[in-house]
Write a structure and sequence with these properties.
heterodimer, A: 302 residues, 72% helix, B: D-Maltodextrin-Binding Protein, domain 2, D-Maltodextrin-Binding Protein, domain 2, 2 domains, five-stranded mixed β-sheet
């Protein structure tokens, strides 16, 4: 087999890579290393340890993984668990499933309804976070909110979304917020399926479920996996629930990003915050590795 | 070769994705700070000569929170100071940064600004932050910034040493206090009347306080009888207005000034936490919701304004700033509708220092940013804020207990009486960085765990004791009396 010659020699290639590499080094690798270093100290922004930080070894990590308090609300384990519920609820079940449902529902259809729904879903995606959070705050308010006004009118009372169902509220919020991405991704993937497949199946008298199971889902498999991993990554790191609940009440909605923020920027404990960030990075690293692995396997398939 | 390059690129991409993902957290800080900042931070002039721009930052917004302070700055301090500087042949412009967020958000902004070597030249500052910021090297004593000449200011002779203590840490003065305050029970006279309670009410024990609350609950089921601050959402308001006011009534102080230790366990804790449990969990005399939601403090203010909250334990700030004209919960006929009572000890004589009644004080002021480019002018501005005429002008906008003894207590019978009766009984917070760093936030969490029903008083106290012992060290904690 003939060896393909690269356009550039390795030397020239590295020269071209250099500017990008310097940039990456300065703004990504250096802070990354810095975070790892301070995670082994008790560095803080205020107080005595701001001027005289001490090396505490694995102390911060041992605190995070102190299993006697690990699942108490406001601690690392509890926050991880909440993040997991949030990701499964709003990303996997919410955004991916709803996005897929919307894409399939409007597959090979045209008309005002489709345009109308698409516009609404995309609008929810592109409005700035703060605006969205503000309107959702108004929407969910127990006493004056639109949602409870409707529920009350049909005799369902006034549930306390902010206090009693706060995690559920941010799950619904994030689903509403992010479904557009999945919907768009699946819609464009569906558009690439040759119409003849579906037409043949229809001639043979296949039901909707049979077409979905045997034609659409297998052909969308790669897209679904990519979508799930990307959405999981984003949802894992999203901070916008903070705008709605502030992580409360009583830390019930404190996902990992809000937990990190509270420790590092409300209590100014940089050392402990750094440790949380390192663990979070490790989790992200695994997710990204899975993503890259699957991408590569897909590339091999096609 | 190709494969190695691929791995290198893949690694870089991975690292950048991971970091981009993690980067979401740090960038959130400015994102939350941005919308609450009314005016952009001052651009520092590049040429240090000629025109000088100074900036003052405070939690003061025209048409919003702290409007009287904003008016004081915009109508008196800034124009008059600029005139004075012009007379001295200097071209000084002063800008006011109107910060609209909470105290906690302002504190976070200060810490980040100061650590980055920037920030506004003159900063409104809560006295109890001083130990934490000073020990962290973020703020500097006036002596270090201005030099020994700071003592030449005429105002020091008129500010009692005890009041100067508000912005002092380890014997060094960091700024000038505006005044001090005290905490009491505020109650709605009209609601009391409807419930058949006396107009001139003064409970002498917790039991009498609870009895009044029960009477209101029975007579007026739609009224929340009593709010005693709890929970992390309210920040320091929980510690000072809630915990301190109850805990002092058990004969203990949050910090033992004799032994220099923090009590972390004992009957005083259980009594106080049981009081919270009675109010919020067992008898629902208070609404725990207002203590748990992010905007709970405002909800309790508005509830009091609307007469749906009958009693609220708060500082005189509530009277002079929240219920006053232009406040967050302006009450039109405040003077006729609102009464106040001293917070009783658990039982007569059982309070701290064997007192029958208890209260706690804090105070705010203005400090000089050690990073200021124009030390002399910034100090001139700070001391100008505290000139006699300036404080007198402020008193016409908002009655209050002022730091200078040559500024008369304004014509407000309520504040005058509070100053006279409560200040002799008062306690202040410890001059120790661990208080605001560790102890106060854990107190807030301890109360939250009880009022939300997550833990029993015993469990909450044990969790508190464990955390504080780890944070401040076993040699700095003790049991209550």
């Amino acid at each position: 087999m003939e060896q393909r010659r690269p356009i550039l020699s390795l030397k020239t290639g590295l020269v071209f890579l250099l500017p990008a590499f310097v940039f990456v080094l300065l703004f990504l690798i250096v802070p990354f290393v810095w975070i790892i270093i301070i995670s082994f100290t008790n560095q803080s922004l205020t107080g005595v340890t701001a001027l005289h930080p001490q090396f505490v070894g694995l102390g911060n990590y041992l605190d995070l993984f102190n299993f006697s308090t690990w699942m108490t609300r406001g601690n690392f384990g509890s926050s991880l668990f909440i993040t997991m519920e949030f990701v499964i609820g709003s990303a996997l079940i919410g955004q991916v499933l709803l996005g897929l449902a919307l894409a399939v529902a409007f597959y090979r259809r045209k008309g005002t309804l489709r345009e109308f729904v698409n516009t609404l879903v995309i609008l929810a995606w592109i409005i700035p976070d703060v605006v969205v959070a503000f309107s959702w705050g108004a929407f969910l308010n127990r006493d004056y909110g639109t949602l409870n006004a409707i529920l009350n009118a049909i005799g369902l009372g006034r549930p306390d979304w902010q206090l009693q169902y706060s995690l559920f509220a941010i799950i619904i919020f994030n689903t509403w917020r992010g479904t557009a991405f999945s919907m768009l991704l699946f819609s464009s993937a569906l558009a690439t399926i040759p119409p003849s497949y579906m037409e043949t199946a229809e001639v043979l008298g296949a039901t909707f479920w049979q077409k979905l199971r045997d034609i659409l889902l297998p052909l969308l498999r790669g897209n679904i996996i990519t979508d799930m991993i990307l959405i999981t990554l984003w949802t894992f790191n999203t901070f916008s629930p903070f705008l709605l609940t502030g992580g409360g009440p009583s830390y019930k909605t404190e996902v990992i990003s809000i937990f990190t923020y509270r420790v590092a920027f409300k209590f100014f404990q940089f050392g402990e915050g750094g440790a949380i960030a390192v663990v979070t990075m490790a989790i992200n690293f695994v997710l990204v590795m899975v993503y890259l692995f699957i991408l590569r396997r897909q590339a091999v398939y096609s | 070769m190709k494969k190695q390059l691929y791995i290198l690129v893949a690694l870089l991409v991975t690292a950048s994705m991971v970091l981009a993902a993690c980067g979401a957290t740090p960038t959130a800080a400015p994102a939350t700070a941005a919308p609450v900042t009314a005016a952009p931070a001052t651009a520092v002039p590049t040429v240090p000569a000629e025109p000088i721009t100074l900036s003052i930052i405070c939690r003061c917004v025209m048409g919003g929170n702290g409007e009287s302070t904003a008016k004081w700055m915009l109508q008196y301090v800034i124009p008059k100071f600029q005139e004075e500087m012009t007379a001295q042949g200097k071209d000084v412009t002063v800008e006011l940064v109107q910060f609209g967020g909470s105290d906690e958000e302002l504190k976070a902004r200060y810490a980040l600004d100061l650590a980055a070597g920037s920030g506004n030249d003159v900063m409104a500052f809560d006295g109890f932050w001083t130990p934490e910021f000073a020990s962290g090297g973020l703020i500097k004593p006036l002596e270090a910034i201005v030099g020994p000449t700071y003592l030449d200011w005429e105002g020091w002779a008129h500010i009692p040493t005890a009041v100067q203590q508000l912005l002092t840490y380890q014997g060094k003065v960091y700024g000038i206090p505006v005044g001090t305050d005290a905490r009491v029970i505020w109650y709605r006279k009209d609601v009391f009347k409807q419930a058949g309670l006396p107009d001139n009410w003064q409970p002498k024990s917790w039991e009498e306080l609870l009895a009044a609350a029960r009477t209101i609950k029975k007579a007026l089921p739609n009224v929340v009888p009593l709010q005693l601050n709890a929970g992390t959402a309210m920040g320091e308001a929980t510690t000072l207005q809630g915990w301190y006011m109850a805990f002092l009534g058990t004969g203990n102080n949050v910090y033992d000034f004799q032994t220099n230790k923090y009590p972390v366990t004992g009957q005083g804790f259980l009594d106080t936490l049981n009081l919270y449990k009675t109010i919020y969990v067992d008898e629902k005399l208070g609404d725990a919701r207002m203590q748990l939601l992010p905007d709970g403090r405002l909800l309790s203010f508005q509830g009091f304004r609307d007469g749906t909250v009958a009693m609220l334990v708060e500082g005189d700030y509530f009277w002079r700033s929240v219920l006053a004209k232009g406040g967050d919960a302006e009450l039109t006929n405040r003077d006729a509708l609102v009464g106040w009572a001293k917070m009783p000890a658990m039982s007569p004589g059982k309070g701290v220092n064997n007192q029958d009644f208890v209260t706690a004080s804090g105070g705010t002021g203005f400090i000089l940013n050690p990073n200021t480019k124009y030390t002399a002018e910034a100090w001139a501005l700070t001391s100008f804020i505290f000139s006699k005429d300036s404080l007198n002008f402020f008193s016409t906008l908002q009655a209050g207990i002022r730091s200078r003894d040559d500024v008369p207590v304004p014509n407000d019978p309520v504040l005058t009486t509070i100053a006279k009766e409560m200040l002799p009984l008062t306690v202040t917070r410890p001059p120790d960085p661990a208080y605001s760093l560790d102890v106060s936030p854990e107190i807030q969490l301890m109360t939250e765990r009880v009022v939300s029903g997550e833990m029993t008083p015993q469990q909450a106290m044990e969790a508190f004791a464990k955390t504080i012992t780890t944070d401040v060290g076993a040699d700095k904690v003790e049991a209550t009396k």
